[in-house]
Amino acid sequence: MSLVRVHNFSISLDGFGTGEGQSLDAPFGHDGHRLLSWALPTRTFTRMGFHGDQGDGEVGVDEAFASRWNTGIGAEIMGRHKFAPASGPWPDDAWRGWWGDTPPFGTPVVVLTSQPRPPLETGGGTTFHFMDAEPVEALERARELAGGLDVRIGGGTTTVRQFLQADLIDELHVVVVPILLGRGERLWDGLEGLEQRFDIEQTPSPSGVVHLTLTRRRDG
Amino acid sequence: MSLVRVHNFSISLDGFGTGEGQSLDAPFGHDGHRLLSWALPTRTFTRMGFHGDQGDGEVGVDEAFASRWNTGIGAEIMGRHKFAPASGPWPDDAWRGWWGDTPPFGTPVVVLTSQPRPPLETGGGTTFHFMDAEPVEALERARELAGGLDVRIGGGTTTVRQFLQADLIDELHVVVVPILLGRGERLWDGLEGLEQRFDIEQTPSPSGVVHLTLTRRRDG
Fold it and tell me: Do B193 and A200 make contact, defined as CB atoms within 8 angstroms?
């Protein structure tokens, strides 16, 4: 069976995966852009080209983790807020995601929303499929789209937490960034005893973050 | 000036320093005893003798951190609940702390409580002084008692958080234990931006925990 994986999911020391007040200018909420500062210098993120040509990027433990995000992945599932800043009915079909004409995914992406709309094809092989569904159904659809490859749960915080609560995740890579956001959305809420289902490893990086990997136990 | 330090303060991955429902049988609340499992095998904790003669204990990174707790310390400040399980008026003076006849501190200890009572002398040089005071006053008193040595903030969670919020702490050693308690008291609540005043280092241990040290910045 294909695996369900989470990669490069950054949280603050106090557990917030998103700050308060997400908006067009602040996709990760107040101060949330700092959650990504460990990732931007890596080769993987550098070559995504969000900031123009920045050279080859760093290779080290951060890159080792970052680079796994899209290997063997056949589809992603994301929450509405990873796709667009606003909630509620779509004002029109003009919004095509945060990523410009060529999103980095290169696979089908299932967007969870109470406001389904027709699929949206973009450059580079990414097609967004909009679905009003519970985690189990969404995963079923994503697996169909993934053609036997793994499915990534792409975020945001609420979406990852819901899939954890539904016990649908096999591998979870979380990056603990040494900042305190104080408010926003917490990843770990309502997950008492989660460690009983996972092996947990903690690896520090010279960049100051700690990479946390949770791998589902075979006997779990 | 003497420093104000916190040592061996364990929290769960989801940030709880104490579980829910502290009682005589569960001094750290539900499942909270698991927060200390990294510490018990160390030489420092083994030699405290809580569990009878257990040999010499382990030496490694956990011991390196654990052993600093009482070096150069002249007094401790603790909250009422680190001293006793119940709140409210003391039923009598029979309760002498969790630690038996010879508490491991060997210094004066200021116990913060809304119910002051006369000082309590115990074996091994530990005297408990009961005080109804804000952090600043309590620290002033502890410094008098410490004779120029450092002051340790001994916990529990609320007490450490209050001293952090009052910006009275110079060194904070936190141990992140890979379990999810789900409920209880959070260490980091209301501390947005704390990282701006501290250098933060994260060191993993083969035992599975991560040692987090926050050291006040000289320019901070």
Answer: no
Regarding an ipTM greater than 0.85, the answer is yes
**3-state SS of B16-79?**
EEECCCCCCCCCCCCCHHHHHCCCCCEHHHHHHCECECCCCCECCHHHHHHHHHHCCEEEEEEE
The candidate with the shortest Cα–Cα distance to A73, out of A161, A133, A8, is A8
Closest CA to A78 of A22, A6, A21: A6
Here the tokens at position A198 are 């996972």
Sheet holding A210-216, edge to edge: A120-121, A127-131, A108-112, A73-79, A150-155, A4-12, A171-177, A210-216, A198-204
Q: Which of A183, A191, A203 sits opposite B180 (nearest CB)?
A: A191
Q: pLDDT tens, A55-104?
A: 889 999 999 999 999 999 999 999 998 998 878 888 888 888 888 889 99
Chain A window 13-72: which residues touch B at a Cβ cutoff of 8 Å? 13-15
Half-sphere exposure of A37 (CA within 13 A, CB side): 12
The CB-side HSE value for A40 (13 A sphere, CA atoms) comes to 10
Superfamily of domain A4-74+152-216: Dihydrofolate Reductase, subunit A (3.40.430.10)
Compute the distance between CA of residue A75 and CA of residue A108 in angstroms, rounded to an integer.
5
**CATH number, span B4-87+100-216:** 3.40.430.10
Residues B158-179: tens digit of each pLDDT: 999 999 999 999 999 999 999 9
Task: Tell if the CB–CB gap between B195 and A202 is shorter than 8 Å.
Answer: no
Chain B residues within 8 A of A210 when measuring between CB atoms:
202, 204, 210
